[in-house]
Amino acid sequence: MGKNFKHYQALDGLVTSALLALYCTMSQKGGFWTTQRRNEQLVKFIKPTLKKVQFATCKNEIRAMIGIGRRATGNLEQKLWEVNAMNLAYRARFTPADELYIMLNALYEQHQFSSMLENAEEAMEIDTLYMKAKSVENGFDADNNQIKPLTVAVKTQRLDTLIQAVQANGVYRVDIDSVDEQQVNHLLLHRISSPPANEGITRSQAPSLDTVNSHDETFA
């Protein structure tokens, strides 16, 4: 799910940030905001993201958003809410195996802990999580639900940081099984709950959408 997830992650972050920025600005400045004024504010926020590396996977969508926002009959706010709904539907299809990938990806991007399958012929690298292929295979059922704790080996001076990061959203619990003579930490990764259904913006956070047009826009 690597490429698709990167695209989802970038687009979801952009849409959520753009809507929150719009509503914060509306709250601060007050008054009635027409569709045109909302479009202008959203385009002002979204346009600079074209040059940001983290949004490289969704440049086509960004250009389409800007086009909608500049169109006389366009309603970019409405389109962003439609994209937000699609992102939530995509997120709802994630399996526990997908969510493990997401967690490991976040560990690398936010805390520089990489992860890989263990290879007995290669030396362990610092701050790298190693998992046995057999442990991963036996840890999930046919529907990709985690049914057993996963064994993880890591050599690090930042064990507390690692454990706090893994346990941050309440989905996983980490137990320290043992520490061997090479100072390798052997951990057990338990799945204890499901992630929150929606960590992004919800429609209830939006001001009144009385000015939303009834016609449909698409990213074409």
TrEMBL record:
It comes from Vibrio genomosp. F6. Residues 201-212 have a biased composition (Polar residues). This is DUF2913 family protein. It holds the Pfam family DUF2913. Residues 195-220 are annotated as: Disordered. InterPro entries: DUF2913 (IPR021316). It comes from the Bacteria.
